[in-house]
Amino acid sequence: xxxxxxxxxxxxxxxxxxxxxxxxxxxxxxxxxxxxxxxxxxxxxxxxxxxxxxxxxxxxxxxxxxxxxxxxxxxxxxxxxxxxxxxxxxxxxxxxxxxxxxxxxxxxxxxxxxxxxxxxxxxxxxxxxxxxxxxxxxxxxxxxxxxxxxxxxxxxxxxxxxxxxxxxxxxxxxxxxxxxxxxxxxxxxxxxxxxxxxxxxxxxxxxxxxxxxxxx
Length: 216
What we know:
Shape: globular
Structural class: mainly alpha
Radius of gyration: 18 Å
Number of helices: 9
Number of strands: 2
Oligomer: single chain
Distance between the termini: 60 Å
Strand order of the largest sheet: 1-2
């Protein structure tokens, strides 16, 4: 997240609650999608710990590593995989398989940076948090590729609300790049977390009203 600890923890609590309720009220094929707000909640809670400026450096390191692992390793593979699992149309699924493979490569590359170049670092800039991936800043071309892979799956989905979510996240990507370039990863993840409420609506199973008893 960005801005403050209270914003992070409030977002985490709201997303976790909504995500759990959605998970319990969705079709089995939609469970991976329904879990996305829950994972966003975990990620926001980790960043909330950083905003507290705790004296325990080990806890801060765990929080920053966990946050960046969510952003750069987890989401590029999980997001397209979740959308693939919920896609009913075979033709769209073929496209989503290709996007998921691309996401796996992004995740693998980010994991390589973690293992090759050491721990993640972060700094507070203009009421936001700026991260580096494996002690290397996320370069502009890589950030664009990362954004393309993460959003492409939703744009390829045949489900209207999933596509709306992807369009909104793409718009947030552009706004973040133009306005919050100094902390683009943190700010964009916050916007995506907030927008994941659309996924709750997308997976919520419509329960038909009870049938009225007919009296003879």
